[in-house]
Every structure is written in C-alpha cells, then in structure tokens.
Amino acid sequence: MKKTGICKKEVFTPPEKCIVVFKSSFFLFLLFACGIAGLLAQGNDSTDPKKYALVIGNGNYAGLSRLANPVNDANDVADALGKLGFTVDRLYNASQEQMDNAVMRLKNRLSVSQDAYGFLFYAGHGVQSNGENFLIPVDANIPGENHLRSRAVSVQVILDDLNDAGNGLNVIVLDACRDNPFGWSRSGTRGLAVVGRQPADSIIVYATSAGQRASDGEGRNGLFTAQLLKNIEVPGLEVKDMLNRTGSAVSQASNRQQIPAIYNQFFGEAYLGSRPVAPVPLVFEAGAANIATGSLEIHTVTGGTVEIVGMNINQSVDMPAWGSLPIERINAGSYRVVMRYDDGKTEEKSIEVGREQSAKVEFQYRPPAPKPEPMPVQPRQPRQPKPPVERQPIAPEAARLNTIGASVGSSFAAPWVVGTVEGTIAPWKYSFFGLGMDVGLVSGAPDLEHLTLYPFARYALFVPFDNTIGWYAGAGAGYMYTSYALAGEGEASEGSIVADFSTGFILGGITVSYSIRTDFNSASNKFAVGYLYRFK
Predict the structure, then answer these.
(1) Region 51-57 average pLDDT
(2) What tens digit of pLDDT does each residue of 423-445 get?
(3) Within a 10 A sphere around the Cβ of 8, how many other Cβ atoms?
(4) Exposed, middle or buried by CB within 10 Å (0-12, 13-18, 19+), for 345?
(5) What CATH number is attached to the domain comprising 343?
(6) Is 80 exceeded by the pLDDT of residue 204?
(7) Chain-centre distance of CA 390, in angstroms?
(8) Helix/strand/coil (H/E/C) assignment for every residue in 122-135
C-alpha cells in the first residue's frame, strides 16, 4: 500500500505525529494482509467439492421443427459454469447415442466423490408419454408413441443414473417444455409431466410448470435461460436461492404466463460458485481533512487495485470482486479514480466531491469469458458392418382404420356425379366395417336425368404397409333407390338391392377407390377420390 502524501510538509503534521500515524497504518496494513491471506486460503481450500456438468443444446432437428436458441442457451450456460469451477462436457445437436454416453460420463465422474456437485442442463425438444418425460435427439425418427423408449432419452433413466452416482448434489435443469412436435401426439399433449421418482439430494427445474409451454425467446436466449444466466454467477448465492430468484424473474418477465417448476429433494446448503465471506474493512488514509469535506463511495464488480489521486491524495487500495470502499470524510474537490485489473484492463473516471455532499463511482468491467477448450479428438474407429435392419412390428393403431370422410367420383357405365359420405369402425385388427351413403345425379341418356340414393354397408380387409399407406378390399350391399322426377316423368321411382365389390388405397388421409355394383341384371363401375379423417 502506497503511503505517498500521508506525511507531506503541506499537511503541517509534526514529526512525532507522523510516526504515530505510520505505526497505526502499518498495523492496519498487517490486519489487511492477514485478511487477504485468509481469503486466499479459503478459496484454495482442498475441501471444496469437485464440480462436473453436462450441457446439451439440441436445435437443428432433421425431421422436426427447428429451434433457434437451444445451442446458444447451452453454450452460454456452459461458459457460466466454467467460470464457477465446473468441468463442463458440452454437446450440441446430439444424437441419442451421444446423449446416452455423455450421461454415463457424468455419472462416472460424480461417483468418484460423495461430496461432488453435478449439473445437467438441456435445451431442446422434450415430450411426455403416460407420465414419463423424454428428451429428443436431433436425428430421432419416432413414427409413434410406442417408439419413444427406444429412440429418445428417458429423463427418468437419467435421474436414476445420477442417483446411483451417490454424490452430494445434482441439479437438473430442463428448458424443454415446448409444444409436442409429433403429429401422433395424443390430445394435443404438450410440456413435460410432473417428476416421477425424484432422487435424493437433487433439485430438478423445469423452465415452466408441468404440462405448460415455455417460450423459446425472441433474442439470443430462451426466456428461462436468459434469467438463469443473470443469477447463476452472482457470488455468495446459495443454489436454492439462485433458482428461486430465476423463477421469480421468469414469472415477472412473462407477466405470470410462464412460471418455472422447481422440485427440491436437497435439504443441505450448497454454493455453485464462491461462498459468502465476511467483508474485510478496506484501509484508506484520506490525509488531513479541512472544514470543506464530503464523502466518496467506490464500487467495483471485478476485483483489482483502485488508485485515488487529487487534493493532496495519491493512494492505492486493493479491492475484491463486488467490493465497496466508503470514504466518510474527504476534502471537497476534484479527483481522478483509476481501477486497474489483473488482466491489464484499466478504467479511469473523474469525480467532483462537493462540500457536505456524497459522490459515488461505479466500475462495471467484467473480464471476457475464457474460450472453451476444444473437445479431444477421438481416434477413428474402423467401420463396423451395419447390423441387419429388423422390420418393426405394425403398431396396433396402424392395423385398424377408424375414419369418417367424403369422396367424389363418377361411373364408367354412365356418367354419374356421385358424392359419398362414409364412416368406418374397426372392431378387429386388419379389417373394418363401413356404413355410407351415395347421393348421385345420373344422366344415362340424353333425355334421362334422375337422382339416386344408395345407403350401403361394407366389410373389408385392411393391409397397412406402414403408418401412412394401406390397401383394402371388401364386399358389401345396399339398396339403390332411383327417382325420375328430374326427367319430367312425374314421381316415378324404383329401387333394388345391389351388391358391390370395392378395392382401394389409403395414402395418409387420401383415398383412391374402385367399385363394381350389380343388381344381378346389370352392372356399373365407380371410380372415386376422397378424404378420410382418421381418429383414435
């Protein structure tokens, strides 16, 4: 600590008083040095827990809607955790195999120490099925709900693995509560389900309440992650308080439209970064004060050395991060305040201290985040022959046809204009029973126009090739009622029992069908194209 200006002749301090001041200052300097040494010893305490993190950001989906922010979210959270002393494993746009392997690496690292802290962050698509949550890899091909267990990553399996590690604390943050991206989702299911079996000593955080949708954000980060980043690096903040602050900020920013869910099974006290420390009084010698004095307060975000020059003062004081230096009595006048940081960065500000007035100087500099270390390049493995692809069994819902719809077509024997309304039910696999009604305007000859009504019933066999394409063939019967009122022949009408045989394809919801109908005296052919709405 510099002592320049303390005992200058201009102060008119007697020599004896200078000696006293110097001894007092030297004593305070020793106290200050001991305090700093204690802090350094505490920061390097070998008892600090080991900290490991896995951060996953999935946004560039191949077959689903892409998400703009998950990779940004994951990268920024990984940088923040790195500053807090975590060893971070980063995954961006990961496959199922990569996600599974990364979870096992995290489990193995945490299992080494019973006091270790674990942190898992995921941003991307997530869905629920029968109360169980799944994280979706970017290359996932999931044609139906029954394939989730084999082609997605189960959150419950992750929780069970981390529980088996037996470490002191695991924090799992899932910013995955977006709309279900799959067309087969039941009843518009969205968001994640309530946590089932929660491990001991764990805190699980959803970006929004169970069953609700979280915002992907309009800027660089999602709404939840943006607020998390503002709180995770605040020094001396206990982990539960940090998450509660984040949840409160998300609720306020969304006008209570998005409220995070926190499931807590950790009842101890943990700090992801530094622990709170008792403030160490900073020593400042303001020199001889005259009658015209005021006060000055200096604040800094990043630790360094502050130098104050002006009004017979030229002194330097070391300040910690988030430190405060109050000077109650300082001569009124102009001062130059310089903040010097360990990385060579310097900030300088001028301040005017008025008589009986308070002045404040704030330094907001933050050092840039260190560049992430590149992932080690794995040696190239020899290409293994791909195992034969096993044909997946047809899902039960794909083997049944439950539809209602309409079609239009015409007859080959006579130019019918026909509109058909038909509904089908499927009491057994690979078959269906249909009921329908044809309404047609028929012009079989230039002077003959008439109206036909044909209610019918049909039983058919249904053969699905996959979940979207199928073929059917069946037979049915109905009653053909014909009215000749349109031909100017009065109310003449006739009817007969008709048998029909039909076949066709169903391409998603589009049907292409061919039928032949006969009353055993004559026959007609019908070609139709329509749309059937399939329901479960």
Answers:
(1) 96
(2) 888 777 788 888 998 888 765 54
(3) 14
(4) middle
(5) 2.60.40.10
(6) yes
(7) 33
(8) EECCEEEECCEEEE
* Alpha carbons 51 and 110: distance in angstroms, whole number: 8
Same domain, 118 and 83: yes
CB 347 within 8 A of CB 327: no
Give the domain extent around 405: 396-534
Q: Judge whether 89 lies within some domain.
A: yes
Contacts of 116 (CB under 8 A, 6+ apart): 49, 50, 51, 52, 109, 110, 165, 167, 168
| CA 364/CA 25 separation, integer angstroms | 30
Distance CA 318, CA 29 (A): 11
Q: How far apart are the first and last CA of the chain?
A: 79
Residue with tokens 């954000």: 217
Residues 87 and 194 in one domain: yes
φ, ψ of residue 506 to 5 degrees: the values are -120, 115
Is 375 domain-assigned? no
pLDDT digits over 517-530, tens only? 888 887 878 888 99
Q: Looking up tokens 């995770």, which residue turns up?
A: 232
pLDDT for res 4: 38
Sign of CA dihedral 154, 156, 162, 168: positive
Domain termination residue (choose one: 363, 383, 416): 363
What's the predicted TM-score (pTM) here? 0.48
Confidence band, pLDDT 50/70/90 cuts, at residue 244: very high
Contacts of 14 (CB under 8 A, 6+ apart): none
